[in-house]
Amino acid sequence: MGQVCAIHLQCRVNAQDFEDTYEPPFKSCIQEGRASCLMCSYNQVNGVPACARKDLLQKIRDEWGFKGYIVSDCDAVAIIHENQTYTSSGEDSVAIVLKAGMDVNCGSFLIRHTKSAIEKGKIQEEDINHVLYNLFSVQLRLGLFEKTSENQWFTRLGPSNVCTKEHRELAAEAVRQGTVLLKNDNSFLPLKRSEVSHIAIIGAAANDAYIMGGDYTGVPCDPITFLKGMQAFVPQTTVAGGCKNVSCDSTDGFGEAIEVAKRADIVVVIAGLNLTQETEDLDRVTLLLPGKQQDLVNIIAGVTKKPIVLVITGGGPVDVSFAKQDPRIASVLWIGYPGEVGGQVLPEILFGEYNPGGKLTMTWYPESFTAVPMTDMNMRADPSRGYPGRTYRFYTGDVVYGFGHGLSYTKYSYNFLQGPNRISLSQSPVPGLISRKPAYTRRDGLDYVQVEDIASCESLVFSVHISVTNEGAMDGSHAVLLFTRSKLRVPGFPLKQLVGFERVYTAAGRSTNVEIKVDPCKHMSAANTEGRRVLLLGSHHVMVGDEVHEFVIEA
């Protein structure tokens, strides 16, 4: 982590992980999201540059139905020859990527070498025509060749469509829904405005608009810092950086921060990351808070009148185990990179104008996980070499906070209203027609069916109906996550698998019903070591919260 350049990265991915981890997100974007453009990356995959992997680039067209164009990451084609020395000439690089299925080069390499590649017979006119077809077909769909702009909706956008009230409200709603309440001891939050006359914000990011946006952020419209947003709620809001910047290499500002914190009724410490810690070409080498930030948090927690609130910024997990275990830190929130109105939304959440209901989209690993090489692409754990696996699906180690974790100011309970007790794989989708019974394989006392042998996966899709009850006194919305797993702990199969989620609004004391569809072929299968999807026969669970519904899959 932080020691390997993407240009020279060699990704070794086995067939099993390719099939059920690395390919599914792209397949979903194409088949469900109708993506029209994909980008091939700098790195090599199993010894071949990504932009030259014909098996991958053609698979998305032939098997997944992709109808668009593929563009290289900037200068990725040049890198194939000049940095990776995979080809012996520039013309060979042009030929290998165009014949593999890449259509557009970000950079000037094709401009410089395509003509000579044709002259040397490396590529033919039909190779160019194929590329133009893929590119122009998308442009035609967008209306770029229309004589008038009537059919080009984007040409009607102008300055009046930028920084509108509606856009700022959308930005605010994204922060509201995305903020995750990680800890809230004794319901410390929400705060009561009538009981807070003086609040202090501590941290280098407290009054920094720059930290609100992540990498590749556009120009923000009148960004609201955490300080400015808090002052709108509590006029007597004071601030101290504590650290000169997010790197926090010195304790020089600690004294001022201590004095500011002592005088306040409530103290909010803003800690975490910004683009000096993580961005393109800059990876973190630790999961801990940068520099002396943790020291600052601990010192402030020791001098305040009441427990403090810790707000974490950044685009990835941070090991805040110290805060999780410290009773002096009552509440912890992760706000990510909240954008131009993040400072407005934070006090809304702290004072209960909005009830947080976000869930973590990634596992928060402990600092010890940094010992695992980031160049190891294997997903499944391997105890024989001390490898813990990756992601909530396969990771077997300790976590700081798990995937899907997220609290609320209220309490929700769940109840399965409807779901199958038994699923037969030989059930025909056509009434009166008997489908063939799929053959199954027995291994280690367990029975498997290859998904490709199932007559109709579509006919097996079923709905799970769940009742969501708000048992607290505050209205709220939150993400309902449905998982599935085999009842037995089977080597090679995920510990659990996310099926889907729905964000549900539920008034205090009321219940709301939600429906989530389950596709056994997609959500309950896993790849074997040959990269073929198999479905385990026998008992399975679908789970939401602590509730479990069991059913049986039979051939």
TrEMBL record:
SMART domains: Fn3_like (SM01217). Signal peptide: none annotated. Keywords: Glycosidase, Hydrolase, Signal. Pfam families: Fn3-like, Glyco_hydro_3, Glyco_hydro_3_C. Residues 478-548 form the Fibronectin type III-like domain. SUPFAM superfamilies: (Trans)glycosidases, Beta-D-glucan exohydrolase, C-terminal domain. This is Fibronectin type III-like domain-containing protein. One of its GO terms (molecular function) is xylan 1,4-beta-xylosidase activity. InterPro entries: BXL (IPR044993), Fn3-like (IPR026891), GH (IPR017853), Glyco_hydro_3_C (IPR002772), Glyco_hydro_3_C_sf (IPR036881), Glyco_hydro_3_N (IPR001764), Glyco_hydro_3_N_sf (IPR036962), Ig-like_fold (IPR013783). GO terms for biological process: arabinan catabolic process; xylan catabolic process. It comes from the Eukaryota.
